[in-house]
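Hi R.,

Here's the chain you asked about this morning:
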Amino acid sequence: MLPAYGLYTHIRANRIRSALLLAGLFLLVHVLLFAGALARQALAGDAYLSVLLALAWRDFLAAFPFATIAAAAWIAIAWRFHQSIIDAVTGGREVTRKEAPALYNALENLCISRGIPMPKLKVMESAALNAFATGLSQKQYAITVTTGLIDALEPAEMEAVLGHELTHIRNGDVRLMVIAVIIAGVISFIGELIFRNLFRADFGRSRGSGSDRKGAGGAVPAIAIAVAMVVLAWLLSQLVRLGLSRTREFLADAGAVELTRNPDAMISALRKIEGRGELPGATSAVMEMCVDNPREGFADLFATHPSIDRRVEALVRMAGGHDPGPMRIPTPETTPDRGPWTTPASPPA
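And here is the predicted structure, written out as tokens:
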């Protein structure tokens, strides 16, 4: 059996990574702040590079407290409203025990079996086969499943998927991914503002005044430095987001097996989801939190998920499961309802 719960080293490491990511956000914001100040001084008029750097540093120090407060406010807003934003993008809605008794009870039973507080349960209207967990705190955690997944999976397979997402919550993967997405969003927004100002500026329109603005040729290298800093900050934010350890998916698969004691259910669920998980209209940030993300990075270098084949191979090797190979999904005509997951019909009038 693959161990998942009890992997305290992984959980502790995720907590440390989360704190480091938040610290890194402030660092990158201040890097961009200096880049913006340097670009502003270069566009105001030419001078020696050393002069432009000194003036930019002066502006940076003056704006430092305001940038720090703004970054903190952005984090607070994202912390409070990120779930509402995700629901607006995906159309997910919370369901109660009365609306989806079997699905709700399956999640509740898994939580009770391990003494885990139960997250909210949400359903997204989509033919895609996927699920994802979101949230930054115990009060916010939610698991969203698509109606396509509900239609396609057997009860044991659905329990395995729910167990997979519960493990992500338990291990701190969800919080880590959300923080990484927040960082990427902040850096992209600020970087875009700087580039827009650069492209709209009439370079050299104002040459400034005084002996420190003598057209000494420092403006061009200053702008080059500013652009390089913006690009570097953006690349780092993307690498952090996309380069987070893909072992989290192996551990979440293992957690599902540990919860359900049924490796074959997790394997068959993965085989059914394989190639059918693309959520129409979903951002890359949402896809990165799903059971499977069919989008892959350049040469698989920054793919957010291991391939289904590798995950199945790990379950077969470590948990003793059996791989049925690629699976065919019955057409809607052969599955007119959702079987055990069907929402109860309204009583006759």
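One quick note: The chain is about 60% helix and 5% strand.

Cheers,
M.
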